[in-house]
């Protein structure tokens, strides 16, 4: 069996581990022990809009990639990296809209715990990225390899936490204004 | 349009936005958005708010014709 087979097996294992972490996160970040996220009606509507933006970001990203891959013989990133980048940008569009419309955290969410977990996940991805760069696996022949996804994830978590911090500062000021 | 009547009714009971939000099971930001006129609540949420504040729908959510 070739290297590609083991690579595919590794990717599959990565996805399964990711799913497992997501399920655990759903459980431990809730304040009432429920794994179901509870949103109020305004949040539900805002999240619907957010998914729309995420969807269109994906469509546009995919179209751009299709045009570029047709027009250029060689792109500076492999197919897996390109697809991963498009997914991450779509997720970013969705979560950004949710954050700015106070619809990211559910009513039964332990916000602090979730922020700490995301910061840790960002850190883990950063360590993996540095490892890949040092091992020379990130860029091969001028092409970004699949390990660049870790670096994209670092960017995602960084932007996520930065947006939360900005929103928290802005939200604090609004709260002072809004309270009776 | 700002819903000052809701804000006044809440203040009359000495309730914070968070306390009202908890009572009707929504986020504080949703109550804030309703008071600021940024969000039109459904009839279900209007009724829940009225019940907690001891007011009628007309008193809190019906716009005066002027």
Written overview of the protein:
The complex is a heterodimer of chains A (180) and B (66). Chain A has 180 residues and is mostly helical. In chain A, 75% of the residues lie in helices and 2% in strands. Chain A has one domain (35-172). Chain A contains five helices and two strands. In chain A, strand 1 (139-140) and strand 2 (143-144) form a beta hairpin. The longest helix of chain A has 31 residues, at 41-71. Chain B is mostly helical. Chain B has one domain: 434 Repressor (Amino-terminal Domain), CATH 1.10.260. Chain B is built from five helices and no strands. Chain B has helices at 4-12, 17-24, 28-36, 43-53, 57-61. In chain B, helix 2 packs across helix 3 (28-36). The longest helix of chain B is centred in the last third of the chain and has 11 residues, at 43-53. The radius of gyration of chain B is 11 Å and the shape is globular. Chain A binds chain B through residues 40-43, 102, 107, 171, 174-175, 178-180, and chain B through 7-8, 10-11, 16-17, 25-30, 32-33, 35-36, 39, 41-42, 44-45.
Give a quick precis of the structure.
The complex is a heterodimer of chains A (180) and B (66). In chain A, 75% of the residues lie in helices and 2% in strands. With 180 residues, chain A is mainly α.
SSE order and pairing:
The complex is a heterodimer of chains A (about 180) and B (about 70).
Chain A: H1 3-28, H2 41-71, H3 79-100, H4 111-135, E1 139-140, E2 143-144, H5 148-178
Antiparallel strand pairs in A: 1-2
Helix pairs in contact in A: 2-3, 3-5, 4-5
Chain B: H1 4-12, H2 17-24, H3 28-36, H4 43-53, H5 57-61
């Amino acid at each position: 069996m070739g290297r590609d087979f083991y690579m595919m097996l590794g990717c599959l294992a990565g996805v399964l581990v990711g799913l497992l972490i997501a399920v655990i996160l759903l459980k431990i970040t809730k304040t009432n022990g429920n794994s179901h996220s509870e949103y109020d009606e305004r949040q539900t509507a805002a999240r619907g809009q957010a998914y729309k933006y995420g969807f269109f970001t994906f469509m546009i990203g995919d179209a751009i990639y299709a045009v570029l891959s047709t027009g250029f013989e060689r792109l500076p990133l492999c197919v897996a990296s390109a697809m991963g980048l498009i997914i991450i940008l779509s997720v970013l569009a969705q979560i950004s809209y949710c954050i700015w419309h106070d619809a990211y955290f559910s009513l039964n969410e332990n916000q602090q715990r979730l922020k700490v977990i995301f910061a840790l996940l960002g850190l883990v991805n950063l360590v993996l990225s540095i490892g890949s760069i040092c091992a020379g696996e990130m860029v091969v022949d001028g092409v970004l390899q699949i390990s660049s996804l870790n670096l994209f994830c670092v960017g995602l978590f960084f932007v996520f936490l930065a947006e939360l911090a900005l929103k928290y500062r802005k939200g604090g000021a609004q709260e002072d204004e809004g309270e009776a | 349009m700002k819903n000052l009547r809701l804000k006044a009714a809440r203040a009359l009971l000495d309730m914070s936005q968070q306390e009202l939000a908890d009572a009707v099971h929504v986020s504080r930001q949703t109550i804030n958005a309703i008071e600021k006129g940024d969000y039109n609540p459904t009839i279900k949420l209007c009724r829940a708010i009225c019940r907690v504040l001891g007011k009628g729908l007309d008193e809190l959510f019906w716009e005066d014709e002027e």
